[in-house]
Predict the 3D structure of the following.
Amino acid sequence: MSCRRKGITAVGCSNSRMRRQVTDAMTVVHIASGDLYAGAEVQLYQLIRQLHRSAQCKVSVILLNHGILERRLSSLGVDVHVFDESRLYGIRIIFETWKLLRRIRPDVVHTHRRKENVIGAVAAKLAGGMAIVQTVHGLPEEHFGFWAVARRIYGMLDRMTARIFAARVVAVSPELGARLGFLRQPKVKVIENGIDTEELASESPLSEPLPGNVRCTKIALVGRLVPVKRVDVFLGVALQLVRRFPDRFCFFIFGDGPGTDALQELRNDLGLEHEVHFMGFRERLAPYLSLMDCLVITSDHEGLPMVLLEAMALNVPVVAHAVGGIPDVLGHGQFGVLVEHQDAAEYAAAIIDSVDDPQATREKVEGARQQVGHRYTASVCTARYMELYRSLSGS
């Protein structure tokens, strides 16, 4: 296949010398969107990075968009193919995926998110002879209008392909796995996310000053600026703390998304222009996160947030809504503070308790760091996926 055709890029063609020659190893193809670089994409990068290092696995990646994930994987020497969905229609993407799978003949096709699950399942079944794995990273976000209809259709097709074609459907938390009731439970497997703690530790310190009062207690929220993340609740928390403790707290929101303008307007309406700072998307988050005094997660639902694991590894205290896989990761309150209700006053009280009891917080933080090191590393996560791949490929 040529390295470039209309809407199709085979990045691996330009760095073929960098490809690892793997013999007698499983071949795995991952299929993902690649339009964003959020939690699911960070987890996918970590997994593929580990697989690429292994002599037991040869990994290729199909993405539907150019972007950060493509660039970061290509820099590792991973074989990356982009079937650009902005230029190719759905049937063409399935056709190109089928052709590539016929050429590579992988043992496993591993897909991520609804649209990619459908594309991968159809193409893999047409190509024949390969096991299909799907990972559910979280519950679907709510959409409205045309996109709501499109998402509903993809949701229906996704459930159908999971039932009929997928050999295994992986959930990133036990809570998320329990929600997959439309599947026979033997088909569902829980493999929790993991982070590369060594890579985190090697991040360079922040070279630029943070905005605002340098002596303030720094409270962070990290995530896409979409309704499910409930940044409006976080702004309510900021309002409560600023009113009670003027000049003591400052707040940092890392991320971007369609809600940015409305949330900045809400911040201004609340009179928090000097206390709440919108930092935008940061590809390298660790240098910023390590400076925070508390990470707050206000989401209505989550799978298993990568930023939660990063904060725990970086010794940053966590106050989080008790949803999804969060309570289990935080030891049901042993390694962080859990908030049961979407109530700004409850979050504010939890933050005050955390910062005003440094001894108890240090104990939670140390336990959190050990929890990540024992259970939520990229190597542990990858080993579990490799075990799954072997069981399906018979190798």
User: Anything to note?
Assistant: Residues 13-22 have pLDDT under 50 and may be disordered. The radius of gyration is 22 Å.
